[in-house]
Structures are given as C-alpha cells and as structure tokens.
Design a protein that fits this description.
α4 packs parallel to α5 and α10 packs across α11. It is built from 13 helices and five strands.
Length: 293
C-alpha cells in the first residue's frame, strides 16, 4: 500500500480500536482516571457515554488492558441479548463451566459462587458492556439484580456501561430507575477540538513509525477537522483516504486537495468543497493495481 512511500511500519489510521494507538489526551485520560478510581473504590455502576465513533470501545479495551491482575474482567460487546442470554454470556466470560441444559437459577448460583470466590481471593470482578443503549430493558433489569450480590461492605460485581448519548434516555425508563440511581460515576467522551486533532494525527503517525516532518499541512488538518467534526473514527477514515490520494499522485505530503478528495468519498463527512475527484480516482486505481500484484 503506501507504507514504504511514507516510511511507515503499519497503517496509522485504521478504524479498529487498537490500544497501541491510545492517546493520553485530556478527555481520554480523564475518563480512564475516573474509571480506574471508581473501580478501585468498589463502586457498583459507572457510565461512559459519547457519540458514535468518539472512541468508547477503544476506551473500554484500554481499561481492560490496564487493570491489574487482581481484577477479573468480563467484556460483553453484543447488546442484543435477552435476559437469560446475559447470564450465559457473563458465565462464559468469567470461565464458569456449565451444561447446555442448565436452568437460569443454577446458572445464577454458579455465577454467585464465582463472584464469592474472587472476593475471598481479594479479586474484584468487573463487567464491561458496550453499546448499552441498544440493550433491552428486561436485560438491564437482570443486570441490576446481578449487582445486588454483595457482602456487608463490598459489591461482588462492578459494572461499567458504555453507550451512546441515547443511553441516558433508556435509563429514564421507570422499570430500571433503581439501576440509574446506582450509577455513582459518569463521564462523557467528547469529540476532539482543533488543537487536539493535530496532536491526535501526529500521535498516530508516530506510533505507526513515521519519522519525517509534518505530513499533513496545516490547511489539510483544518479541512480534516471541518469534515470530521472532531470524531476520531471519521478522522481516521479521511486521513487514510487522503494518504491514498497523495500516494496515487506520488506526493510525500498531504495537501488540502487530498483531504477534499477523501471527504467527497466518505459518508457522514461534512463536505468541504466539491473538488478532488480528479485526484481521488487515479489514486484508487493505483492502489487497487498494486494490491493485485
């Protein structure tokens, strides 16, 4: 692809939530600090919200990766679970063995036993759930019941909820008002501002092995910001396509025209100006031809 052209060791702007590219900017680091402090203090429910593409899944994976060994972590990324399916998922994530025909009461008993064993061994059990705004209300109610498991002083299970802003509306449902009351810490991840975007782009390039001067011109970064509104996922998509466009022309720096070309080909991006098709299509043709070799 364009790796050798720009002197890179790996692709810098993939949309996979790779924790190696986690940037300790103010917003992300603050959220990680809130999560770490809340979990160490034994709080029951913690909520992290943010718009689509702002980096919630990356934050979740970074949290799991950085927790010490005395944390036993279960991660559930599929929100479309029925109430009983949630129990099976939790059991599987915690390494609990069970037969296919086990009933819900017995499964809950085994989960409780596992949580008690962890507690007796000075281990905290953490359940991280992604895209919770799409979880059925009945499933959220079972989740609340799970957190009823406690000793006189400690919760046996702590829960971190990651979701889009609509999660706040879901939590207003009368049947799960007790769950909402148990959320003791919350944090909202915001899009990057213009200054943070520049640091974000440079950070990802450095992690990917780039050693040159500023690859993106100031004007190009301005256009990336306008087109992405500071959403990291869109930033990654636009920057990746802009680099393909520059590579297709044999350029060694990213100019505004390359960003316009990338933006014109990206859904949900704010169109800057309707130019760049002349650059974009030759770049794609060259990239496809190279991959075919």
């Amino acid at each position: 692809m364009y790796l050798s052209h720009f002197g890179l060791q790996e692709l810098p702007f993939t949309i996979t939530p790779d924790t190696e590219f986690f940037m300790s900017r103010a917003g992300y680091q603050d959220a990680l600090n809130v999560l770490t402090i809340a979990l160490r203090s034994g709080e029951g429910f913690i909520k992290i919200t943010g718009e689509v593409g702002v980096g919630k899944t990356l934050m979740c994976r970074k949290l799991i990766k950085t927790l010490p060994d005395n944390f036993d972590t279960a991660y559930i990324y599929n929100p479309y679970l029925k109430a009983d399916s949630l129990l099976f998922s939790v059991a599987s994530e915690l390494g609990i063995k069970y037969k296919a025909n086990i009933d819900q009461n017995e499964l809950l008993r085994r989960i409780t036993t596992k949580l008690e064993e962890n507690h007796s061994n000075d281990k905290k059990t953490i359940l991280c759930l992604d895209e919770v705004q799409a979880m059925p209300i009945s499933t959220l109610e079972v989740l609340r019941l799970l957190t009823n498991l406690e000793t006189e002083k400690d919760k046996l299970l702590q829960v971190v909820l990651f979701g889009q802003p609509e999660l706040d509306s879901v939590l207003d449902h009368p049947s799960i008002r007790q769950l909402k009351q148990r959320i003791t810490f919350s944090y909202e991840l915001l899009p990057l501002n213009r200054a943070a975007l520049s640091r974000y782009v440079q950070h990802r390039l450095l992690v990917a092995g780039y050693k040159g001067n500023n690859l993106f011109s100031k004007q190009a970064l301005n256009l990336v910001y306008q087109a992405s509104n500071g959403i990291p996922r869109l930033i990654n998509i636009i920057c990746h396509k802009a680099m393909i466009a520059a590579y297709g022309e044999g350029e060694t720096s990213i100019k505004p025209a390359h960003v316009r070309a990338a933006t014109s080909d990206t859904l949900n991006a704010q169109r800057t100006r309707k130019r760049g098709f002349r650059i974009w299509f030759p770049a794609i043709s060259r990239w496809v031809a190279e991959r075919a070799l």
